[in-house]
# Entry
Amino acid sequence: MTKKTVRTIFIAVMIWLPLQYGIVGIVGYYHSEPWPAFVFPGFKSVYVYEDSFEIEQSYIEVWTEQGEQSVRLLPQEFFPDLPLSQVPGFMRTHFLTDEEERQFSIQAKRWLHQQAGRAAGLDAAMLDIVLEVNYYSHHPHGLERDSVAEKMRYTINLIDQDEHQRTI
Amino acid sequence: MSISERFNRWIFESWQVSAEGLGLLRILSSLFILFFLMPGYGTPHFNFLGGMPPDFYAPPPGPLMLFDQFPSPAVFQWVHTILLFSLIAMLLGYRTKLTSIITGLSILILQGFIFSVGKVNHEILIAVVPVVMAFSNWGAAFSIESIRRGHDTKTESWPLSLLALIIGFMMFTAGFPKILGGWLDPTTQATQGHLLNQFFVRERQAMLAEFMVQFDSVLFWELLDWLTVIFEIGFLAAVFSPKWFRRFVAVAVLFHFSTMMILNIAFLPNFLAYAVFLNWDGIYQNNLRFYRRLTGKRGERSKKRSALLLSAFACLLFFILNRLSSMDLVLRESDLTLHEVVFLFFALFVVMWIGLKKLFVEAEY
# Structure
């Protein structure tokens, strides 16, 4: 490769890097982060709420028919085959979305039923997706959870293939 | 000196490389990827992804949007097999430029599908390193192609400048959103918030995490917020000076080490890229001296044999570490792995050793 070609490559890269960062910002704002892209995670969020910390935690509650039995699982327990680093993103994308985006095909419900059977050992009839907000603050004897608030709860009916919302 | 001359100097003369040093780098990088950085978690992971319904296929904006569902497990296995063969060819130095590029592309394809569950992990450097270094002619020594008569022995150092530029810019992209997000606001302690998030939500509770969760010092946590932002933004400026870039890489090792100890995030893929900026010719020379002292042999063949011995030793060590790590004997409650912890401690040791050596050598003068 000639020196001129290498110089051209460098100039192109020096123009491309900030340009693609701009694209990542715009596309990421409206959709999700593009890939492949030369970016590292920003960890922009600051989980501070007044004098305490606000931490969101999601759960999946597995219910048998007529609500006879239930098991509450962390998402990483429900989807043990997913790498832990991807679990919160997976939940955000597929389960913690707006109401109109929560559409699951019969195939998806069957798959979720299988996952529930493996993770909870139950013949699941429905799943409750729960999002809670925990408020932590420092006390003289250490960090403590002050309160918990349920931010979202909805049901995925695995049998009727009919999803309906309980409460939000 | 004109700007054009300075630009040329930065591209072509910032880094010194030798065929032998690059050869060692190629071998150890290949082994590192092979044992520790292969995308995915093997057949069970590929079967899981391949068996997911199309509802859960959420490709990030980009070429993966051309597909409407996950490929079958067989496709994952095919790409994985191509990656394996190209990586072994890169390790052995067979058609090194081509196989390095195929290695990088296969990694990109696998990563792309893995990230299509709805979460992109920022591990692109694993693919970038072989592709960029392919142009350094890192197959010029200790390789199958070097046996061939009339092979190309000319090495290039500009890929290191390019890689430094990419790393520096990527670091900047980590720092810039933090400023916008309020990390520098003295009334909020962002690092502490992230620790709590990792600790409670992702249950990353190994190493010093539990101790640090209870550690309540506004000054300490605010200082960490500021240092993180300064370090990540400053990396970009350091790109134009090899001396400063190496210093920032050293700080990066300390940064990742502390992140591992506190947040239980190791970010091992970055170490593949950081390792490129070690003095590989110096490592080769030291290894050769050690080999000659050990065996008493001083001939021309000792050059190849010393490199071969070091490579075999690294291969054995990586294999043992890989096996031990997969046995899950320690850190069972954590998603940190044994090899990540070992490598980060080793990197810390190397950085401190180089730092102390420089300190004492400079003090002598």
User: Anything to note?
Assistant: Helices of chain A lie at 3-30, 75-78, 87-94, 106-120. The first helix of chain A runs from residue 3 to 30. Chain A touches chain B through 62 residues (CB under 8 Å).
